Amino acid sequence: MICENITVNEKGNLCFAGMDVTKLAAKYGTPLYLMDENRIRQRIRTYKNALTKALGEEAKVLYASKAASFCQMYRICKEEGIGVDVVSLGELYTAIKAGFNPAEAYFHSNNKTDEDIDFAIEKGIGYFVVDNEEELFVIDKIAGEKGKRQNILLRITPGIDPHTYEAVATGKVDSKFGSAIETGQAEQITKTALGLKNINLCGFHTHIGSQMFDSEVFFDGAKIMLEFISHIKNSLGYTAKELDLGGGYGVRYTENDPTIDIAANIEAVGKYIRNKCNELGLEVPSIRMEPGRSIVADAGMTIYTVGTVKRIPGYKNYVSVDGGMSDNPRFALYGSEYTIYIANKMNDKGQTFNCSVVGRCCESGDIIQENVTLPSSVCRGDIAAVLTTGAYNYSMASNYNRIARPPVVMLNNGEDYVAVKRESLEDIIRNDI
Ligand SMILES: *Cc1c(COP(=O)(O)O)cnc(C)c1O
Which of 288, 244, 223 minimizes the C-alpha distance to 56? Predict the structure, then answer.
């Protein structure tokens, strides 16, 4: 199995976090998002322990909450004592409503509106991760009006291509995110920030990409950023106290994906940073890491009921489920890979039916996965499970075709509870006049 929280019971049913998925489908209906709370906490602790061990108590984990954002996630982060990243008023508002201290939140985004900035400063946001000069001036102005001196990090583009999918590579010079070192804009914005009265420049941020299975890009990113810090120290006399290395360790969507030892990787990154600082004569800055996907992805599974099974002789086969791109647009967006099982037929010997698993939306591109092998007995009423859907599924869900979003049900030591309710038909027309 691709993760240790996935098993099969004596009835031949798929279990997630030790609980029979078909029973949960019967109890809550489908489509249904399941999340394994222990797995989330375990992953947070892995990061937190490894990071403080490698780089001291000053080092901090920030959960990139865009991966899965709802109140209970922020409560878990609060209980585990980590910070969070937010990228919109909606995420910040959710965090605050969940009782999360905004002083522990970092506000990202390449285009923060004046409204975003005003609201976040009003609520006492810990940091803005500033993307560009234009935004810097607006933050300085609004902070000044409120009589505050705002902590910021500057988002720097190091000019690294992490060789992952184009849409999730963010560290290249021509990226829409951040200010590039190569063009001189990174130094320029640092200089500007240091000259603004209502801005407290705390350091730098970089995020290179996503779904990475080793630390090469973290070494490269740390190297470039520490050399940049050293250069800025010499040229502007400013020493950055914080360095945020972004997110990005990978997770297993299929058996072909490697397993990554996050603790060992962070230990190696820590060692690299300490050596590099030594070489450059720098004090080790307070390091931040911002994992999103690797905190929640394999803590999630989506459960559907199978509907139409269509055989087009000589061409291909389709298995349709009662959700689709409305709850998981990732295949349509990036061609993402997934592992799919028929949860009530795990011990079925005839796993020979090659098909595309598709959704119910009116789009040919509404595909969950192509080239899937399922039991040839697959039929209407079976329960389908799509694995590793904890990240960027619920958070990317839409009401396309006016399909209601599924609930999020958390599993914890044999207990199940609703963290997000299923949308009702009333919810669908809530804002219609
Ligand atoms: C998306 C993002 C992350 C998280 O990336 P994952 O691959 O989900 O770990 C972290 N930092 C920034 C700035 C991001 O945009």
Answer: 288
Question: Could you tell me the CATH superfamily of domain 6-36+297-428?
Answer: Lyase, Ornithine Decarboxylase; Chain A, domain 1 (2.40.37.10)
Q: Is the pLDDT of residue 90 over 90?
A: yes
**CATH no., domain 108-291:** 3.20.20.10
- 151-182 residue pLDDT tens: 999 999 998 766 655 555 666 777 778 899 99
Residues annotated catalytic, as ranges:
362
DSSP structural state of residue 177: S
Dist. CA 16 → ligand 1 center (Å):
26
**Would the CB of 292 count as within 6 Å of ligand 1?**
yes
- Within the chain, all domains assigned CATH 2.40.37.10 are found at 6-36+297-428
**What is the pLDDT at residue 165?**
53
Find tokens 């991966």 and name the residue.
67
For residue 327 the two structure tokens come to 């709850």
Which of 290, 334, 336, 396 to mutate to test ligand 1, by most ligand atoms within 8 A of the CB atom? 290
pLDDT digits (tens, 9 = 90+) for 67-76: 999 999 999 9
DSSP one-letter string for 2-68: -STTEEE-TTS-EEETTEEHHHHHHHH-SSEEEEEHHHHHHHHHHHHHHHHHHH-TT-EEEEEGGGS
End-to-end Cα, the chain, rounded Å: 48
Whether pTM > 0.85 for this model: the answer is yes
Ranges of CATH 3.20.20.10 domains, the chain: 108-291
> Hunting for tokens 């779904």 — which residue is that?
211
CB within 8 Å of 432: residues ≥ 6 apart: none
Ligand 1 binding pocket includes 221 (Cβ within 6 Å) = no
